[in-house]
Amino acid sequence: MDIPASLLDFSLIQGSALHWRRFLARPRRVSRPVRILVLTLVGWLPLLALSLLQGDPAVSRAFLRDMGIHIEFLVSLPLIIAAERYVDLSLAAAVRQFAVSELVDAKDLATFEGIARRVIRLKHSATVEAGLLVASFAVSFMDLPHQASPVWLHSEPGGPHTLAGWWYLVVSMPLIRFLLLRWLWRGVLWAFLLFRVSQLPLALVPTHPDAAGGLGFLGTCQASFAFIVLAVASTLTAQRLARAPSTDFTNYALHLFAFALISLVVVFAPLAFFSRQLLIAKRRGDHSFSGVAAWHSRRFEQRWFHRELPAGQELLGAPEFSSLVDLGSSFTVARRMRWFPVDIRAALAVLSAAMAPMVPLLLADRRFLEVLLALGKSVL
Questions:
Q1: What is residue 237's predicted lDDT score, i.e. its pLDDT?
Q2: For the chain, what is the mean pLDDT?
Q3: Which DSSP category does 154 fall into?
Q4: What is the pLDDT of residues 164-194, one digit of tens each?
Q5: Residue 74 and residue 220: Cα distance in Å, rounded?
């Protein structure tokens, strides 16, 4: 099957409607490590410099102690940018796999290509990116209920903004919000592509070794978003600790666990679009293999249990035994076919990414270390 070039070159990450983004997205002009360094310095370094230049020791100390800001711009922001290449390769490979593995029939390939082209056009929409940019700035100046402002944002409670506070509101906060909103938009586009593809008559194979009719690669593809989950989880954890410091890490663990469950739903929910076709393929496989297995088993019993062996043929090594074993293996695989194309490894990748920020918190908890040491002594 000849695969169209638009499917081979599919990319949901590279390119943008905004010219400055196109410049930053070209690896030949600006490498990814340089982009990470530049955007990190733009978002974080002026905050440090301006808080020191403010001349108020209280403001400087408050900024230096604000772990939420440091994690957000020194950990989360680099992760958000660094994940682009990995996620882009995973999504592109998934799009090609639909065609290479002939899940999409040749007669539907043009429709599949049209879906991919439409997604690319939406990705290049200047209106959408401008809207995301406006929303990023608008959030900075919205007085959200229950929103705790950093202490260093104001020179005094309820007073005017500090120099660092203005930079945070006008540059730093819109920057990272825009990056996150753009990832959200990419996720929506990818979910739209999966939805449209799920409407095509896919050639699912009940006996496929991935136990998902040939769609097992989608679970691995979705798991690539674990880097974004890790970035968001790190920021949420650091901000919660900075705004409400406490020694009760159990409370943080419960919140992170809730976030992990939400992440699992958000990341893997688009794969539910394929559940209907997978369920139909599983039922078809069950019925077909049941009939074939019954016919083969009857012939096998008639040949080996009720009649004499053909002259010169031994029981051991007879081809009927081999075919019976192969048929049994295929029938077992078909019966184990999942109606949701996600395996435990993909789910654990996202779950681990969401819970990873809890590890340093637990290591900082003296009670947890005491329990860990006690367990170690009991084992040894």
A1: 79
A2: 80
A3: B
A4: 888 998 999 999 999 999 999 999 999 999 9
A5: 28
Rounded distance, CA 175 to CA 97, Å? 34
Buried b (16+ CB within 10 A) or exposed e, 167-199: bbbeebbbbbbbbbbbbebbbebbeebbebbbe
Q: Is the pTM of this model over 0.90?
A: no
CB-based contacts of 155, cutoff 8 Å, min separation 6 = 54, 56, 59, 161, 162
Rounded to whole angstroms, the Cα distance separating 85 from 11 reads 10
Alpha helices in the chain (DSSP H): 5-8, 19-25, 32-53, 57-64, 67-71, 77-100, 109-123, 126-140, 163-167, 173-198, 216-223, 226-243, 249-268, 275-304, 319-335, 344-355, 358-363, 366-379
C-alpha 166/C-alpha 172 separation (Å) is: 9
Rounded mean pLDDT, 77-95: 93
DSSP string of 58-70, one letter each residue: HHHHHHHT-HHHH
Residue 38 burial (CB count, 10 A):
13
In this predicted model, which residue has the larger pLDDT, 351 or 149?
Answer: 351
Closest CA to 228 of 217, 238, 219, 236: 236
- Calculate the CA dihedral of residues 236, 237, 243, 244 and round it to 10 degrees: 130
Q: What is the pLDDT of residues 212-230, one digit of tens each?
A: 889 999 999 999 999 999 9
Instruction: Tell me the angle at which helices 226-243 and 77-100 cross, rounded to the nearest 10 degrees.
Output: 160
CA distance linking residue 247 with residue 361, whole number of Å: 10
Radius of gyration for the chain, computed over Cα atoms and rounded to the nearest angstrom: 28
Bridge partner residues of 104 (DSSP):
202
Label residue 24 by pLDDT band (50, 70, 90). Answer: very low
pLDDT value at residue 25: 45
C-alpha dihedral, 8 to 14 to 15 to 20, nearest 10°: -160
For 306, other C-beta atoms within 10 Å of its C-beta total 7
Contact 333, 211 (CB under 8 A): yes
Q: Minimum mean pLDDT among 233-242, 260-269, 296-305: which range?
A: 296-305
DSSP per residue, 255-290: HHHHHHHHHHHHHHGGGGGGHHHHHHHHHHHHHHHH
HSE, side-chain direction, 13 A CA sphere, residue 116? 23
